[in-house]
Amino acid sequence: FGVCKKIKPRNLEEVSAVIAIARPGALEFKDQYADYIRTGESALVHPHFADILDSTGGIPLYQEQLMQMAVKIGFTLDEAEQLRSIVVKKKVDQMHEWREKIDKKAEENRLTNAWTGHQGDEIAEILWQVAEDSANYSFNKSQSISYAALSAITVYLKFKYPKEFFLSLLKMTRFEPDPIAEISKTQRELSQFGIKLLPPHLIKSDMDFTTEGPDIRFGLLSIKGVSD
Question: Which of 22, 50, 84, 100 is the most buried (most CB within 10 A)?
Fold first, then answer.
């Protein structure tokens, strides 16, 4: 929530980035990404990779971006996936071999500074640095965007239909390892929405949680020791 408040995402793409950043390793980029959201100015890593990294403020946040960068210097998609797998799984024994492959591929495709006239870091060096560093923080965009979509739908339902939303949560608590703790956690939020969790009642309670006017009635099966 702290990362979300700082960055203030405005669309699904930005929510996806927040999810990817809000993890150990990637948190160091939260200020850089927040600046990008505020100003729209991306940190330029290298002109050759601008189209790949601009959408995340110049941060190689996703594993798919590493693959795109590898493809852009001449590797096939299959080779790019091999690089991603080696980096993510930290296969140290294969890293040196890939460093040489990246240098060779950049030379073959005339992407060295001698050919391009670029004055800064070599393209191969940047790709290798991204590969090494991203092992500690990169995330699957395919997974992150799915989480973002689910988050957006969940937030909409929570604030548009709070009673039904919390009823669904409470009905699921009996399948949790500690149902009482989950019920207590949900109950703490109910007051913020003006909803009461009514106590168990021999006549008014059903087997499971039910709605009762503007409130929710405790289900009998969620009482410890009570079975079907």
Answer: 84
Q: Please list the helix, strand and coil fractions of the chain in percent, rounded to the nearest 5, in that order.
A: 65, 5, 30
Q: Sort 94 into a burial class: Cβ within 10 Å, 0-12 / 13-18 / 19+.
A: middle
Q: What is the pTM of this model?
A: 0.76
Sign of CA dihedral 82, 87, 88, 92: positive
At what angle are helices 92-108 and 123-134 packed, to 10 degrees? 160
Tell me the one-letter amino acid at 65.
Q
Residues 140, 88 contacting (CB under 8 angstroms): no
Nearest residue to 130 (alpha-carbon basis) of 55, 67, 41: 67
Inform me whether the pLDDT recorded for 1 exceeds 80. Answer: no
CA dihedral 196, 202, 204, 208 (to 10 degrees): 70
Arithmetic mean of pLDDT over the chain: 90
Q: Give the pLDDT of residue 65.
A: 93
- In the block, residue with structure tokens 């109910």: 190
Residue 124: how many other CB atoms lie within 10 Å: 21
What does the pLDDT look like over 35-62, one tens digit per residue?
998 898 888 888 999 999 998 999 889 9
